[in-house]
């Protein structure tokens, strides 16, 4: 299925190469600059001891987390956009990221452990997805209603988040704000491992089981049903799985906004292929997070990666709205 | 509209609404750490010898009056925005206008070290003006559909929120200053704030009321409006100026508060019909009822502390918004 689409493979491969280049650049920069060649040597286990330690022990965990978060957000975004048949139907616009954020923030304020934080984020994200589906009803899954419901949910959840922020004492609030913005600062294996496990389970299911069905679903429910696609089961199942993936990503790094929105959009524009374009989207997503993290740490003063993606995403969304309007799609 | 019972009921209804508002204002002044009965509120207001004179005049009166003024401003802004965009979902909070004011205030606080309302208000007005124009342009201007406008608002909200967090994160002191403000709260109300905010809101109210009749005409379409002697371009400009004044001043005074501008016109419309000459006065009376009421509720529920009024309106308004989306075609 992937081999029959050389253009998609080209896009995915190109994005992965670019991502690898940025990753090597990121691994080489910091208080102790290391030349790209030495970074590669260190990664291969052939560098000198100091460089190997700095690259593999200090800097690699953060980059790996960024890559995994990018892969996860983009995969979830691709599924959501495909199911809602709307380039704006991403988990952040729908309030799922806010749900994960509100739940996780409660744990931060209460001083819970990072395991509890992850569990809360997952529960909050999946719970929000279920509520949206419940309110949207059967017909509500597509079109703008779904998105408007998400905007309403986001507003309510942001109100709750704001309240929680005022509840915490000063230090906790700063920590919570940082978490809420999305950051790879100080993230490592502890955050990356649960996400890696979820991705290893979810991505094959999404790509092999859901992908082909979702591509048929884009032709319309009736045609897909006639072709033997279990329409409702596929839609609900893939949305739920995607919500779990995005919630784990939020648990790992906080809500890194807009990657889930932008990556599948860019991938789709480049591949010009129907369907969720899962693998190319994921490659673009990883490129985006690693790139945004590099920008965030080298922009003059350090800002969280979520601010970079938020600003890029907001600008992109404005552009998308303008072009979609001209094309008469919304 | 045909003359009938409903029409003659509208002035009477407005009188009842004013009475409700008066009752809520008394409740607003009365509630706090020590609840005051209406009699004690009255004594506290007029009798300098009353033991409650100071607490009423220094804390509860400014807070309640600010709730009155800000509620009125947000409700009115929502009502004229809904009329202008023919969009039932228009709300200054959802459309990012409050976020625009917030972003400008955050910049002022972080980069220029401005920490007072008197300094913030100009920035808030500027931010509100820019975003009002932007959301209207991005949403498609005259061709805006509810979904388009809401999405444009969501996009701007998200981008501005990212900016506000970047600015506040860079400086912990400004987080501390702003974290209560960004929720939407009446807690820091005093007479100085009230004196600064009122002229802006008063100007906004006068412009908004002046647009009631031409906006009615505009609801029939641009051509019909022109035939009736209205100038669509001028009216749109005036509405944007009024929204900017109302939302900018309200946001500067108590932070971004969402859903008041959405809820009240919707609740009022079944009582008044679509005629803005009735809808706007009803909204002006009942929107403060919601805001002051939500503030009282927040103080009761959050006791011994308080639940910020912005949180209460978000939690109350969200379900109604979701319901409106659900029933909308």
UniProtKB/TrEMBL annotation, chain A:
Compartments (UniProt record): Cell membrane
Topology of the protein relative to the lipid bilayer: Multi-pass membrane protein
Pfam families, sorted: FecCD
Gene3D superfamilies named in the record: ABC transporter involved in vitamin B12 uptake, BtuC
Keyword Transport appears in the UniProt entry: yes
Keyword Transmembrane: yes
InterPro entries, A to Z: ABC_BtuC-like, ABC_transptr_permease_BtuC
UniProtKB keywords: Cell membrane, Membrane, Transmembrane, Transmembrane helix, Transport
Transmembrane parts of this sequence: 63-81, 93-111, 117-135, 147-165, 192-210, 239-263, 301-321
PANTHER family xrefs: FERRIC ENTEROBACTIN TRANSPORT SYSTEM PERMEASE PROTEIN, FERRIC ENTEROBACTIN TRANSPORT SYSTEM PERMEASE PROTEIN FEPG
Family the entry assigns: Belongs to the binding-protein-dependent transport system permease family. FecCD subfamily.
Name by which UniProt lists this protein: Iron chelate uptake ABC transporter family permease subunit
Classification lineage: Bacteria, Bacillati, Actinomycetota, Actinomycetes, Micromonosporales
């Amino acid at each position: 299925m992937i081999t029959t689409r050389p253009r998609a493979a080209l896009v995915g491969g190109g994005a992965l190469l670019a991502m690898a280049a940025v990753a090597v650049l990121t691994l080489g920069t910091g208080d102790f600059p290391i030349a790209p060649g030495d970074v590669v040597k260190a990664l291969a286990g052939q560098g000198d001891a100091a460089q190997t330690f700095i690259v593999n022990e200090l800097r690699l965990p953060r980059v790996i987390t960024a890559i995994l978060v990018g892969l996860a957000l983009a995969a979830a975004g691709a599924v959501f956009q495909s199911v809602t048949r709307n380039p704006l139907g991403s988990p952040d616009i729908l309030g799922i990221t806010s749900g994960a954020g509100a739940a996780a923030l409660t744990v931060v304020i209460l001083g819970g452990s990072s395991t509890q934080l992850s569990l809360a984020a997952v529960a909050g994200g999946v719970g929000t997805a279920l509520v949206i589906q419940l309110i949207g009803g059967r017909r509500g899954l597509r079109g703008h209603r779904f998105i408007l419901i998400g905007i309403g949910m986001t507003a309510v959840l942001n109100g709750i988040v704001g309240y929680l922020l005022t509840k915490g004492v000063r230090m906790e609030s700063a920590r919570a704000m940082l978490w809420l913005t999305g950051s790879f600062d100080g993230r490592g294996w502890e955050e990356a491992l649960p996400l890696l496990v979820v991705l290893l389970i979810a991505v094959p299911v999404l790509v092999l089981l859901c992908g082909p069905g979702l591509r048929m679903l884009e032709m319309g429910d009736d045609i897909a049903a006639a072709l033997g696609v279990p329409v409702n089961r596929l839609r609900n199942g893939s949305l739920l799985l995607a919500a779990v993936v995005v919630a784990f990503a939020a648990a790992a790094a906080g809500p890194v906004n807009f990657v889930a929105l932008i990556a599948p959009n860019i991938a789709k524009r480049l591949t010009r292929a129907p369907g969720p374009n899962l693998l190319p989207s994921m490659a673009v997503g990883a490129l985006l997070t690693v790139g945004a993290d590099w920008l965030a740490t080298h922009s003059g003063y350090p800002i969280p990666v979520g601010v970079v993606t938020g600003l890029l995403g907001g600008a992109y969304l404005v552009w998308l709205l303008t072009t979609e309007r001209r094309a008469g799609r919304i | 509209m045909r003359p009938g019972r409903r029409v003659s009921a509208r002035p009477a209804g407005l009188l009842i609404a004013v009475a409700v508002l008066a009752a809520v204002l008394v409740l607003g002044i009365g509630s706090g750490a020590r609840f005051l009965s209406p009699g004690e509120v009255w004594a506290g207001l007029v009798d300098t010898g009353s033991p409650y004179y100071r607490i009423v005049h220094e804390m509860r009166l400014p807070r309640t009056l600010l709730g009155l003024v800000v509620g009125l401003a947000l409700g009115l802004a929502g009502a004229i925005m809904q009329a202008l965009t023919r969009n039932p979902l228009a709300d200054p909070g959802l459309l990012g206008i409050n976020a625009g004011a917030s972003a400008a205030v955050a910049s002022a606080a972080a980069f220029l070290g401005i920490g007072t309302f008197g300094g913030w208000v100009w920035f808030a007005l500027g931010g509100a003006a820019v975003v009002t124009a932007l959301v209207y342009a991005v949403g498609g201007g005259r061709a805006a559909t509810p979904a388009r406008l809401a999405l444009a608002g969501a996009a701007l909200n998200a981008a501005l929120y990212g900016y506000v967090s970047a600015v506040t994160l860079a400086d912990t002191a400004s987080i501390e200053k702003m974290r209560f403000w960004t929720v939407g709260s009446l807690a820091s109300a005093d007479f100085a704030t009230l004196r600064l905010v009122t002229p802006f809101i008063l100007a906004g109210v006068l412009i908004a009321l002046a647009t009631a009749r031409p906006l009615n005409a505009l609801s029939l379409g641009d051509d019909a409006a022109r035939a009736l002697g209205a100038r669509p371009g001028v009216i749109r400009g005036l509405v944007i100026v009024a929204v900017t004044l109302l939302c900018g001043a309200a946001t500067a005074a108590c932070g971004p508060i969402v859903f008041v501008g959405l809820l009240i016109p919707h609740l009022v419309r079944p009582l008044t019909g679509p005629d803005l000459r009735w809808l706007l006065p009803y909204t002006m009376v009942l929107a403060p009822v919601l805001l002051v009421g939500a503030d009282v509720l927040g103080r009761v529920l959050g006791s011994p502390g308080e639940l910020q009024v912005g949180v209460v309106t978000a939690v109350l308004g969200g379900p109604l918004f979701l319901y409106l989306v659900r029933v909308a075609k």
